Every structure is written in C-alpha cells, then in structure tokens.
Amino acid sequence: MRLRIAAVLLLIAGAALLAGLNRAGDGDDGSSGGETGGVAGAGERSAYVAPRDGGRSWLRSRAKQRSVVWAVGDAADGGPESREVAAMIRSHRVDRFLYLGDVYETGTAREFQGNYRPLYGRYDRRAGPTIGNHEWANVATGYVPYWTAARGKPPPFWYASAASGWQLISLNSNASISTSSEQLGWLRSTIDRAPRYGTCRIAFMHHPIYSAGLHGGLAALQPVLAELEGNASILLSGHDHDMQRMRPINGITQLVSGSGGGELYPVNRNDPRLAFYDDTHHGAVRLKLRPARAVVSFVASDGSVLDRSAVSCRQR
Q: Given this model, what pLDDT does residue 23 score?
C-alpha cells in the first residue's frame, strides 16, 4: 500500500511540474527586443523561441515551439468571396492572424465594424494588422479607434512581436521609409536590439517590394529591403489581388497574399522572379512556424492547397 501511495504522489508531482513549465511559456508579452525568452528545450544551444518577460509589444509574442500564422490582405469588402475566405481560415487553427491591409472602401469606422469585424474580429487579441492604402486617409477615425478599442491602447504604426523563433515586424508602407525616416531608424534599431533572431524574421506591410501583379512592386521600399537583407527571410504583403511566391532575392522570399475577397488581378506569368502564382482563386497564406523553419501554403477558399514550400532561416 505504501508503495502505491508513493507512486501516486510521484505522478502528481510530475504533473504539477509540467503544468508549471507550460504556464511559464504562456506568460509572454513580447517586445521588439530579445533580452530574455523561452527556449525550445533546455540545452544551452537550444533555439530561441520568443521573449516571455512581459515585454512592451502591442502584439503579444508566442513562446511556443510551433505556431500557425495566417496572413491575408484586401479581404474586408463585405462581399461573398471575403466571407468564404474568412470561413476557410476559421475552420483551421489560428495562433496569429496578420491582416495585410485594406478595409473597403476607405477604412471608415463604419466599414471596420461592418466589413472587417464580422469576418476577423474574433482574432483581435492575436491579430497583427498593418495599414493599407484604402484606410490610410481615414486612419485617425477608422483604423486607430478600432484597434484601440480591441486592445485597450492605440496601435503603433510599426511594431514587432515574435512567434516560435521568428520575429514578426509590421511596417507602414504608406508612410515615409526613406533612409532618414523615423520608421527606418526604428527598423534598424529593432534589428540591432534583437540580434539573436538572425535571419529568422518576417516583415509584413501592405505594399509588396516585388510583385508580378497589376500594381507591381513599390520602388520606394528599397531602403527597407536594404535593412532586411541578411536579417530576414520572408516579406509578406497584399495590395495586388492575387497570390504570389517569388524566388528568393538576396535571401528574402516575397509572398503576396492579396486575394482575400476583392476583384482578382492578373499576374504576369512570364515574370522570371515567380516561383508560384494564382490569379483565379480567392484565398490566404498559412505559415507553420517553428525555430529555423517556416512551411508556407497558399490555401484557396475551398480549402485546397495551391502551393506548398518551405523557408529556412538561421538564428545567431
């Protein structure tokens, strides 16, 4: 009998220890820095996962070994295609949701409540938005009040978070990103303060730097690319209403996920930079993250996977 009691006590103690470790991993509120954080395993050489010290970021970091991130833009116009894409995403696991901009038509408070919130409001506490050109003119009366109400504090126009070993950096492609701009200075210091991520960074903004779509890339974003080269592996954007995966350029893979509901735009299929494109389906991109690796899938609104690839990165 004593042996049985001792065995039960050991089991209870082990369960309590595991629960304590899991709670420790949930206590993160990531900052743009990487002073302390969760690790994947206990060894000294284990991969860095995310800060979990309370942090200062507007979007909490996720100090877990694996995360599922969905990203889509141009997806809140109130139409049936938008609702289909949102329903498809809703049927899957969503640890983080990145909205790549454009709430139609002009990002008013009414349009945020009527076109965006019914589709994606359920993710407001785990969403990372970036500002689209359609809501930029009304940012003070639409975007800012909506996200302030959702989070209890105003949204910064650029910010950083982390998930499963990747730093997530939201930028505002509507604002100045010249070499002397405040935003570029912030990006530079954010990278400098968190060297541990190495090339394991995902930058996201509304306008793509590279695109074979109707709008094309935005040349004014080249200073961003210069800062990210050697410090990031993935760029995420919307704006062009299609899906694109470009071949890596200087170590960075540009993904375009702008087919969230608006009228689809044609892609120049002869562009040699293209590794994949689709301009006939509405859908979104899913990134399954773990330290040093991202599995990228473009998923149509009917749930079919149109393209799957993997991006590797290197922590320092």
A: 29
Pairwise CA distance, residues 147 & 117, whole Å? 11
Q: Quick one: which of 144, 90, 156, 154 has its CA closest to 118?
A: 90
Structural domain of 131: 29-312
Sign of the Cα torsion 220, 225, 228, 233 reads positive
**Torsion sign across C-alpha atoms 113, 109, 70, 216:** positive
Q: Does any domain span residue 11?
A: no
CA–CA distances in Å: residue 232 to residues 176, 183, 236, 312: 21, 17, 11, 10
**Which amino acid is present at 33?**
G
pLDDT tens for each residue of 80-139: 999 999 999 999 999 999 999 999 999 999 999 999 999 999 999 999 999 999 999 999
Pairing of strands 253-257, 234-237: parallel
> How many CB atoms are closer than 10 A to CB 4?
8
- The Cα–Cα gap between 267 and 24 comes to 46
Neighbours of 247 (CB within 10 A): 13
pLDDT of residue 5 exceeding 90: no
* Total domain count, the chain: 1
pTM for the whole thing? 0.86
Can you give the CATH number for the domain in which 37 is found?
3.60.21.10
Does residue 101 contact residue 238 with C-beta atoms inside 8 Å?
A: yes
Task: Give kind and range of the element (H or E) at residue 201.
Answer: strand 201-204
DSSP letter for 247, please. P
In degrees rounded to 5, what are phi and psi of residue 160? -135, 150
DSSP helix/strand/coil, 79: coil
